[in-house]
Amino acid sequence: MARSVKEWIGKTDNTKAPPRVCQRVFDRDNGICHFCGQPIQPGQKVETDHIQALINGGENRETNLAPIHKKPCHTVKTAADVADKAKVAAVRKKHFGITKAAGKLSGPAFPKSPKPDREAKAMPPRRSLFSRCG
Ligand SMILES: [Zn+2]
Predict the structure, then answer these.
(1) How far is the CA of 40 from the centre of ligand 1 (A)?
(2) How far is the CA of 23 from the centre of ligand 1 (A)?
(3) What's the CA-to-centroid distance between 4 and ligand 1, angstroms?
(4) Ligand 1 ion: residues within 5 Å (CB)
(5) What's the gap in Å between 105 CA and the centre of ligand 1?
(6) Assessment of whether the complete model's pTM goes beyond 0.85
């Protein structure tokens, strides 16, 4: 029986899990990507991901960590986490009546004025500056 180890908990959300913890998480999950469920093969890049993203209230602790393929799984999951966060933020803003500033007016535009007639505004013949100096 393996010796039990105290769970790693990050001091802050910015504290990165040390390599020994990432290794433990990888071994705990038998090297299975928690996003796609496929084994992470030798040579494939692996990262340690927060199962519930920190931006969505997840905790920075070992039980919330799992191995994930760097690409494409981690990229896709992070994008989905950010989209979730944005959706929640938008719903909360709407709930509190915080709305964006009004954009373009939706009414009809001003009528366009006709183009000025170029012939009528013809400039008088230009006098040369040098002709006076003679
Ligand atoms: Zn994967």
Answers:
(1) 7
(2) 17
(3) 28
(4) 33, 35-36, 69, 73
(5) 47
(6) no
CA 52 – ligand 1 centroid, Å: 16
SS3 of the chain: the string is CCCCCCCCECCCCCCCCCHHHHHHHHHHCCCECCCCCCECCCCCCEEEEECCCHHHCCCCEHHHEEEEEHHHHHHHHHHHHHHHHHHHHHHHHHHCCCCCCCCCCCCCCCCCCCCCCCCCCCCCCCCCCCHHHC
Say if 126 falls within a structural domain. Answer: no
Instruction: Note down the domain range covering 33.
Output: 19-95
Query: Is pLDDT at 81 greater than 60 in this prediction?
Result: yes
The count of domains in the chain is: 1
Does 36 map to a domain?
Answer: yes
Establish if 75 belongs to a structural domain: yes
Q: Please give the pLDDT value at position 67.
A: 96
Does the residue 25 lie in any domain?
yes
Distance 56 CA to ligand 1 centre (A): 21
Question: Looking at residue 57, which CATH number applies to its domain?
Answer: 1.10.30
